[in-house]
Amino acid sequence: MAKLNGDLDPLFQDLDWAIGQMLIMGWDGTEVTPQIRNLIQDHHIGSILLTAKNLKSAQQTAKLVQELQALAHQSGHPQPLLIALDQENGGVNSLYDEDYICQFPSAMGQAAAGNADLAYKVAKATATEVSAVGVNLILGPVLDVLTNARYQPLGVRATSDDPQEVSQYGIAAMNGYKDAGVATCGKHFPSYGNLDFLGSSLDIPIITQTLEELSLSALVPFRNAISTGKLDAMFVGGCGITNPSMNVNHACLSDQVVDDLLRNELGFTGVAISECLEMEALRNEIGVKTGTVMAVEAGCDLVLLCRAYDVQLEAISGLKLGVENELLTKERIYTSLKRVLRMKSSCTSWTKALNPAGISLLSKIHPSHHALSLKAYDDSITVIRDNEKLLPLNVSMHQEEELLLLTPLVKPLPASSMTKSILEYKNRSDTAPSMHDKWIHRDRGVIMSGEGVFRELGRSLARARHGKLLHTSYTANGVRPVHENLIHRASCIIIVTADANRNLYQAGFTKHVSMMCSMLRATGQKKSLVVVAVSSPYDFAMDKTIGTYICTFDFTEMAMAALVRTLCGHIKPHGSLPGTLRKSRKVVKSRQHWLVEAYERARDAKGLNDLLQSLARASTPAHSFLKMATSDSFELFNPNIEESHFVVRNSSTQALYGFCATYYLQGTGIIGALFVDPTKRNLSIGRSLHRRALRGLVQKRGAKKIQLGMTFPGVFFGIPADETGGLKQWFSNSGWDLQFPRRLATMTIPDLSVWTAPEGLLQSIQRANISFDLIHGLDNSDSVLTHIAAHANPEVYELYRSALQEVKTCGVVRAKSLGEIIIGTVIICSPGSQLASFIPSLQSADQLVGGIVAPIVAHATPQANLALQGLALMGVRQNKAHKSGRSVLSWVQEEAFESLLAMGFEMSESFEEYTNSVDNVSPTVFLC
Q1: How many domains does the chain have?
Q2: Counting CB atoms within 10 angstroms of each CB, which of 83, 149, 708, 731 has the fewest?
Q3: Glycoside hydrolase family 3 N-terminal domain spans which residues (predicted)?
Q4: In angstroms, rounded to a whole number, what is the distance separating the alpha carbons of residues 698 and 707?
Q5: Confidence tier at 347 by pLDDT (50, 70, 90)
Q6: Cα–Cα distance list, 348 to 87, 97, 121, 325, 914 (Å)
């Protein structure tokens, strides 16, 4: 024991203390109860979840948290309590205080604003506020991909149905939380983005996608967030998984999900937090005692139990019994303990916990945060269609005309003053709640008649337009006589919907009113119709019969105020639809033309570096080499290579929206990079750059071929082979023939200290009479360059010339057969070579990397495979001699993959390079 826990406080030698740190618990009430006091004092619970039921105001929250921390301190806890909170913004905020805590748009609303930097600022502001009242762990960001976006309960809590967009905004939020000093927790692993509510025999939703399907979409944001190294915790969901390779009833209780998928495959080393084990299905099927043990066995470090004291005691006794029964080893307990304590050390201390900044800080920052809130909401409002030009209403309507507002009955959002005034439960539904409804409202506060939620919207709208406004609600009873009478009176009707895809009466009501308005217009009456979706944008996004359609992404007071400003023309909305909905409008947007300018280093270098970092944050870990690319990676200044680079930029802010690098040598025009800001995709920026690049290349004197992907510089080898986002289709639509790719790869030996050459390889090479030597400088290079000219592309020839000029840091290994005939060559780079600046995969921030670049072997010779393996072996030996920790073998052709994998190299990235004849380039790319 002493050896195992030598780095821990001696107090944790007592397993009761260690077990207490593995539980996160909550309770109902706004004061410290005897039960929660007992859990902290006697059972050493180290983490607390606060919900809306605990919190009345910022001041009360600060006092409550301080009391909890003081209690832990007095009880001898070595480190402060983790204080966790759901504070996602939009409709999910546990803490609301209109005087001190600002409201911001939902995750999807922030994505609609189209600015990841704004998402970062919102997250940092949110975390700063909750940190001031003592919270040190935010249960966020939401990293779910809405794979089946229209019918999922997460709705606007998720960013979109685009994995890369979810990654970008999730990582921006995570960085904001971290920079405010608060720990982060990604959720809901492996995904709540495509749940099936019909196929489970248990009272839980299930995931039916295969692991392969999940890996290509749902897991991408989790993988990307983990790869940043900044994700402290992961919330593992309680959903089931049913597919041919996995059959799991509760994800958080499965070692296949937590240990195998999350830890081993995705490489997560932080704290795994289980879904609340008080869920009815788990209690009935397994029981909390066994469930708690199963969660820890699966790999969870913190087990969540939300509020029931008797259940919480049951969980504690379950863990103790698990140790006694030897289901849980002490090593397993202490592994989790160390993870939890490490996270605590990163986000809290006794000085911070016992002395929160409190109201004094909140008062100081409130004005700037309120201004940020206003901007975020104004930027998020999205007008999807306004075919009849009804906006703003003060232009399309006379002041004396009547405006009718029709709103549904909804559950008020926690972040509203109205919610605070509601004290009792009331459910207006005529039918029993569905399984879907039970799931979406689990562990939430009251489900209320929301008749008053939109009352202030009506008042604000009437005041803003200085005209008469009629307002009434509608229900599942449909269009009633009162609605018909009001519709006949009004000149313009605004219908509000809130998740009409799941509340089908709203869709039916809206369609009925739309039909009535059409019929009345046919008789010559003025009957304008505006539909506003105040939650999911999917309600009528694809229904072109709704001519004016607006999305607000939540219906908090701030969102409704921004809606009023939009309707009355006080702001011009610039929001856009998330994910594939944005892409569905590409036909219209493809008519956009962007000014393309020549790249100027002094003006554009900083913007290009920012663009590259944005791309790195949004790309998969497999393409993390982009993190090491800089603006200098593209400018070769080689007298034998013509280079022309282009940008689409914002001339006011100097931000680059897109960049394209082109090169020309010996009759071949090459696109060596084509990048577009992830937040500006599907706006024709890439098409504008591509069109300009091709026009310049095909007009070069003597141009014969056009190539997509380049070896030197080696930033963009071509289209990633595992690309699933339509990139190949994009290039195909842009005139490329993609039938005959050259497949290339980057391979690696991640740890040279443990690598050994395959047994017998050296003897086989010697028997084949293959010899090797290493040369430096151009003086001895004629035979090498002759070999390259015969077997490789022109840019590879220039790559070798450049390497040979770096006498101190680069060299070329030659493989020779009997008679001193060269049958293969490869470039060797020591760490820090100039060549590495043009090949980002050879760079690393945390270890020395040795490069083995562009092996070129005459494959017609019988010794080709042995020559290739020998060249790689010589390269590895040279890398080791230069103290490299890793070897990267760059630009490997497909025929070499098998031989090198057999040596212990691992596939890092693979690409497809394409070459077309100039004569075959489609002329349509120069038109449109």
Answers
A1: 4
A2: 731
A3: 16-342
A4: 11
A5: very high
A6: 18, 24, 22, 35, 53
- Host domain of residue 54: 21-361
Average pLDDT over residues 500-519: 93
Give the residue among 386, 460, 442 at the shortest CA–CA distance from 238.
442
**Residue 618 in this model has a pLDDT that exceeds 80:** no
- Residues 770 and 635 grouped into a single domain: no
Residue 264 backbone dihedrals phi, psi, to 5 degrees: -75, -45
Beta bridge partners of 708: 671, 914
Backbone angles phi, psi at 789, to 5 degrees: -60, -30
118-141: burial string, b at 16+ Cβ within 10 Å, e else = bbbbbbbbbbbbbbbbbbbbbbbb
User: Can you tell me which residue has the tokens 């690098």?
Assistant: 661
Q: How confident is the model at residue 87 (pLDDT cuts 50, 70, 90)?
A: very high
The CATH number given to whatever domain includes residue 568 is 3.40.50.1700
Residue 228 and residue 92 share a domain: yes
Contact yes or no for 94/55 (Cβ under 8 A):
yes
Within a domain: residue 28?
yes
In the chain, the percentage of residues whose pLDDT exceeds 70 is 91
CA 805 to chain CA mean position, Å: 42
Write the DSSP string, 264-300. IIT---SEEEEPPTT-HHHHHHT-HHHHHHHHHHHT-
Question: Same domain for 712 and 812?
Answer: no
Give me the chain's average pLDDT, please: 89
| Token pair of 285 as six digits | 């099927």
- Is 522 in the same domain as 641? no
258 within 8 A of 299, measured Cβ to Cβ = yes
Chain segment 28-84, per-residue pLDDT in tens: 999 999 999 999 999 999 999 999 999 999 999 999 999 999 999 999 999 999 999
Contact between residue 464 and residue 564 where contact means Cβ atoms under 8 Å apart: yes
- Establish if 615 belongs to a structural domain: yes
Q: Is 80 exceeded by the pLDDT of residue 333?
A: yes
Q: How far apart are CA 665 and CA 783, in angstroms?
A: 21
Backbone angles phi, psi at 152, to 5 degrees: -100, 140
> Are 456 and 312 in a shared domain?
no
Check: CB of residue 905 under 8 Å from CB of residue 872. yes
* DSSP string of 617-671, one letter each residue: HHS-GGGGGGGG--GGGS----TTSEEEEEEEE-TTT--EEEEEEEEEETTEEEE
Nearest to 231 by CA among 276, 184, 169: 184
What are the respective helix, strand and coil percentages of the chain, to the nearest 5? Answer: 40, 20, 40
3-state SS record for 416-477 = CHHHHHCCCCCCCCCCCCCHHHHHHCCCCCCCCCCCCCCHHHHHHHHHHHCCCEEEEEECCC
Per the CB < 8 A criterion, the answer to whether 887 and 852 are in contact is: yes
CATH number at residue 654: 3.40.630.30
| pLDDT tens string 864-878 | 999 999 999 999 999
